[in-house]
Amino acid sequence: MDDIVTRPAEEISREELYELVWQTPMSKLGAQLATNGPGLAALCRKRQIPTPPLGYWQKKSIGRAPEMPPLPSFEPPQKTSPSIKPVRGSGRPVVPASVPSRDAESVAELPPFDEDDESLNHRAERSGPDGLVRGCSRKNRC
């Protein structure tokens, strides 16, 4: 295994990596392959290499490790691009009727905004800071 130390994990064959992963814990093997355990696990997922389950090394130490599964054949993932299909042949997505339209005509029909309207000023009903601000200022953690 000393000759492997000089090679990056990406250069090791799929079959060789499969054997190594089942012989040595990934945290130790990752250090030998100039990577880390999570990086090695990600590489195994990418190459579709089964890895030992949690608790495998403890069970192996007492002679109760599950059997090593066979290396499955590699099936490259199919690259599919997401597709957005026009709905109902219109070429535009369907907008639910509950969503108001925002075209120029509907905007022109809106009443003008009145800054003095007290119904819009919810803070006018409060006298002082709310509970969160009061608690924060008491504890001086703001």
What is the first-to-last residue Cα distance?
Answer: 56 Å
User: What is the arithmetic mean of pLDDT?
Assistant: 75
Radius of gyration: 31 Å
Roughly how much helix do the residues carry, as a percent range?
25-40%
Poorly predicted spans: none
Judging from the principal axes of the Cα atoms, what is the shape? elongated
Task: Give a count of the beta strands, DSSP E runs of length 2 or more.
Answer: 0
Q: Biggest sheet, in brief?
A: none
SSE sequence, one letter per element: HHHHHH
Please give the count of helices.
6
* Proportion of residues in extended strands: under 5%
- Helix/strand-derived category reads mainly alpha
Describe what you observe in this structure.
The protein is mostly helical. The protein has a domain at 2-61. The chain has 6 helices and no strands. The chain has helices at 14-23, 26-32, 37-46, 56-61, 104-108, 131-139. Helix 2 packs across helix 3. The longest helix is centred in the first third of the chain and has 10 residues, at 14-23. The protein is elongated.
SSE topology sketch:
Layout (H helix, E strand, L loop, with lengths): L13 H10 L2 H7 L4 H10 L9 H6 L42 H5 L22 H9 L3
Helix pairs in contact: 2-3
Summarize the structure.
This protein has 142 residues and is mostly helical. Helix content is 33%, strand content 0%.
